[in-house]
Design a protein that fits this description.
single chain, 300 residues, Hypothetical protein af1432
Length: 300
């Protein structure tokens, strides 16, 4: 049985792709969090740091860009601010219980902020923030362009957070689940996203192109991060290991929830995206992803 009671949490988190602030330099909350996450994970910090990051990402779905700095500037004490964030996390207790995950904020030092403009100076971070997602495409059919266009940083941060939250359900390592979600589109730093249609047109050149582009992006990461995510990239080629299951479940949930947003905003049918535009692509993990979406009631 999948943790279907957590679906409302995943939907609410997905809106962080569309929340901005006058301090975010045009970035969505998810993009700003992606910038912080890359800094946290390369070189890898403690598991606790990633847990704090996910906890604050969760709080952002209710509080947006309210953080320690701007709340303290209007007179709130450290304890008052900490209590606000604790109460926000507690408001998700039903969903967190369904996921069998316990998130807590111990001290005010746990309060991560996502509005540091210096973080965008990182080439990898800036490249994936600037690289738009293609949306649903399929061979032989015209591209469907839907606005607002999400970035690869939006998608990667969301998949990383989802995979972390799903890790207890699949028995996967939460740090590995987060890392592969965060870095799984490294190749799009070099290769603009042409969607599934473009990938099919590359044909026999696809694998080599992705591997070469991925290597170029990984050259900016530490050797320790490279070693770990190289192993994880091989692991997610199928959906058999716990980490691969957490990742692929997170990936397909994010893609379909993004389509549901477009469906609401543009009367665009997510069923059309899945059945006609191959949103869930053919391949070794397709059946697992479709089963995941059926279990959550997102498709029939």
């Amino acid at each position: 049985m999948h943790p279907t009671h957590a679906l409302s949490l995943f939907k609410e988190l997905n809106e962080l792709k569309r929340i901005k602030s006058n301090t975010s330099n045009g970035l969505s909350f998810a993009e700003a969090a992606f910038a912080v996450a890359v800094e946290y994970c390369d070189p890898p910090n403690s598991d606790k740091s990633i847990e704090q990051l996910v906890t604050m990402f969760l709080a952002g779905s209710r509080l947006g860009f309210l953080n320690y700095n701007n709340l303290s500037s209007v007179g709130l004490t450290a304890d008052q601010i900490l209590n606000i964030f604790r109460e926000t996390i507690d408001s998700f207790q039903v969903e967190l219980d369904a996921l069998k995950i316990n998130l807590r904020l111990e001290t005010s030092n746990s309060l991560v902020s996502f509005d540091d403009p210096k973080l965008r100076s990182n080439k990898l971070v800036n490249g994936l923030i600037s690289q738009p997602r293609a949306g649903p495409t399929t061979p032989g059919k015209p591209r469907v362009v839907l606005y607002p266009v999400e970035s690869h940083a939006d998608h990667c941060m969301m998949v990383a957070a989802y995979a972390f939250l799903l890790s207890p359900f699949y028995g996967s390592d939460p740090t590995d689940s987060f890392l592969i979600g965060l870095f799984h589109h490294l190749h799009n730093l070099t290769l603009p996203d042409s969607g599934y249609a473009g990938e099919c047109l590359l044909g026999n050149h696809l694998t080599k192109s992705i591997e070469s582009a991925r290597s170029l992006a990984m050259s900016s990461l530490s050797s320790r991060t490279n070693s770990k995510i190289s192993r994880l990239f091989k692991e997610i080629e199928e959906a058999s290991s716990p980490v691969a299951k957490a990742f692929h479940a997170a990936d397909c949930l994010d893609r379909v929830l993004q389509m549901q947003y477009y469906e609401t905003a543009h009367s665009f049918s997510v069923t059309h995206a899945i059945e006609e535009l191959d949103l869930i692509h053919d391949g070794p993990v397709k059946s697992f992803q479709l089963d995941t979406l059926k279990s959550f009631g997102l498709i029939s």
